[in-house]
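Title: Prediction job returns without error message
Component: structure pipeline
Severity: low
Priority: P3
Assignee: unassigned

Description:
Job completed but the reporter wants confirmation the result is attached to the right record. Sequence as submitted:
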Amino acid sequence: MSIGSFPSIFFLFFVALIVPAEQLGAQSSSSRPHAGRPAMESSLDPGSVSNGSYRNNALGFRCKIPEGWVLRTDVMNAEQNQNSGSSNDAADPTKPVAANASSAGAKVLLAAFSRPPEAKGEEVNSSVLIAAEPIAAYPGLKEAAQYFGPLSEVAEAQGFEKDEDPYEVAIGAQTLVRGDFHKDLGTRVMRQSTLVMLSHGYAVSITVIAGTDDGVEDLIDGLDFPSPRRSAK
């Protein structure tokens, strides 16, 4: 079954990582993110950050954040709200672009970077993005694997190549669908893996980006979906 090809919130993440830092513009001090509870509608628990980990009890998982990484959760949600429904922003490749009005309610639960996105660096800016998009924004979406249809379109439009077809992976007590991509940046390669599950009426995606396969796997190893008995301890 095919589903509608809506612009994914991942497009925001791709552009924020790929365009030159000077095109992104510096963040004002008033928009600097802080550790703790990201802004989120009450219909879905946004989770929280503490002691170097993101935890979302409602969705049943936690994610380690490497020491020294910076958070941009609040900033990316603010940009999502500003750009939602704006066709002009969606046409501008130098601006982060989020989901359109059809996917209102899409939220970033966690955005963590090895360095500030506006800072230049020789290495790929390793990153973790956890996002939730209403399933209702994707008519016909019944299984997590179907989410990779529109996601692959967005990725390919940004120059990413799919490594293989999406496949199921088990992490702790949860089975997710994983898709792997890479993008040749000339002197280096950007590698991305996205893991998706459907939960609480949302397509919940966990995207990690690094410069090597080992870097990607290290970030995925920081994910844990404990059983209810374990999580209660």
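Comment from assignee: result matches the submitted record. Residues 18-41, 87-102 have pLDDT under 50 and may be disordered.
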